[in-house]
Write a structure and sequence with these properties.
The protein is an alpha+beta fold. The protein folds into two domains: 209 residues, Hypothetical protein, domain 2 (Endonuclease III, domain 1); 115 residues, Nucleoside Triphosphate Pyrophosphohydrolase (Alpha-Beta Complex), CATH 3.90.79.10. Helix content is 45%, strand content 15%. It has 15 helices and seven strands. Strands 1, 2, 3, 4, 5, 6 and 7 form a seven-stranded mixed sheet that branches. Strand 1 and strand 2 form a beta hairpin.
Length: 341
């Protein structure tokens, strides 16, 4: 397996020192602040995360503050980032840390709920200078091109971890890990990589063999699943009716207008039983994606004759404070436009 020589490693670290982005979580070695950033950055772009990170750290500045917070409050501050399981695991992890203490090694961080091999390596190396490797999608891509490895999926991931462990710059593991990730994020990009700016260009097998656009090998495509939902937005007077999403469902613990899987029939007896009698009007269609699922949502609002005790009734102002999934926010916007509010 090709390795980085000492000179190559020095070139990468010099490049990182001169070219790294000024990200707020890079201005601290607080393990909690770094932990929050790493969880937010999973499957989310840096530009999206930055304002959320600032807002989160202002509201939950320490692990103790987060651990004592109400889940609904925590979810409301995560609202818009998606993949809400990350948020719940972060809260669970904070409560674990308050009880057991803040870990200082990668092995210790692996005991924390919601922390995997990558996040453990990131926190331990960046916050504590522990010699722990890490591999994310960016590092996998750098590895595949640098070494010419044509593997994919788990085979590529396993090989990248072995390579990262062998090539870890132990004197500065935090900077080294961040440099590899930064190289993948800003230079060795998935599309249109800027190879001429790469400090490892001369050692890169893919560049030297004109295979940059072929690597990493494309994984097998996941088949798209098409779903259709029907949602009714109940209105009684000036209040809106919602229900809390049950455990085991997408967005569990958050709030939604009554929703069912649909066969295209908008006048649903199941929804009528939940909402109660009233006058219904179709509003339109909302589309949303969750992983490989494509969801078409038929939306109606219902002027209810009474306030069903199966729902929580809140004002328009209270709606803004409740944690609601992104498609439900889209639905609310569509209904408010229809109502001229």
């Amino acid at each position: 397996m090709p390795s980085l020589s000492g000179d190559d490693g020095g070139a990468l670290l010099r490049w990182f020192g001169a070219s790294k982005r000024d990200l707020p979580w890079r201005r601290t070695q607080d393990p909690y602040a770094i932990w929050v950033s790493e969880i937010m950055l999973q499957q989310t772009q840096v530009a999206t995360v930055i304002p959320y990170w600032w807002r989160w750290m202002e509201r939950f500045p320490t692990v103790d503050v987060l651990a004592s917070a109400d889940e609904q409050d925590v979810l409301s501050f995560w609202q818009g980032l998606g993949y809400y399981r990350r948020c719940r695991l972060l809260l669970d992890g904070a409560r674990w840390v308050v009880e057991h203490g803040m870990p200082t090694t990668a092995e210790g961080w692996l005991q924390v709920p919601g922390i995997g091999k990558y996040t453990a390596g990131a926190i331990a190396s960046i916050a504590y200078g522990c010699p722990a490797p890490l591999v994310d999608g960016n590092v996998e891509r750098v590895y595949a091109r640098l070494t010419g490895d044509g593997a994919a999926n788990n085979e590529l991931k396993d090989a990248a971890w072995r390579w990262a462990g062998k090539n870890l710059f132990r004197e500065r593991p935090g900077d080294w890990n961040q440099a590899l990730m930064e190289l993948g994020a800003t230079v060795c990009k998935p599309i249109a990589p800027d190879c001429k700016q790469c400090p490892l260009m001369q050692q890169c097998v893919a560049f030297q063999s004109w295979r940059v656009n072929e690597l990493p090998a494309k994984p097998k495509k996941v088949q798209t699943v098409q779903l259709r939902h029907t949602v009714w937005v109940p209105i009684f007077g000036e209040r809106f009716g919602l229900r809390q999403i049950e455990p085991g469902q997408w967005w569990e613990g958050m709030w939604e207008f009554p929703r069912i899987l649909s066969d295209g029939n908008l006048d649903s007896p199941e929804l009528r039983e939940i909402v109660g009698p009233g006058w219904r009007e179709s509003v339109g269609l909302v589309r949303h994606s969750v992983t490989h699922h494509r969801i078409a949502i038929d939306v109606s609002f219902v002027r209810c004759e009474s306030a069903s005790d199966r729902l929580r009734w809140v004002s328009r102002h209270e709606l803004d404070a409740l944690p609601m999934p992104a498609p439900q926010r889209k639905i609310l916007k569509l209904v408010l436009a229809q109502l001229g509010v």
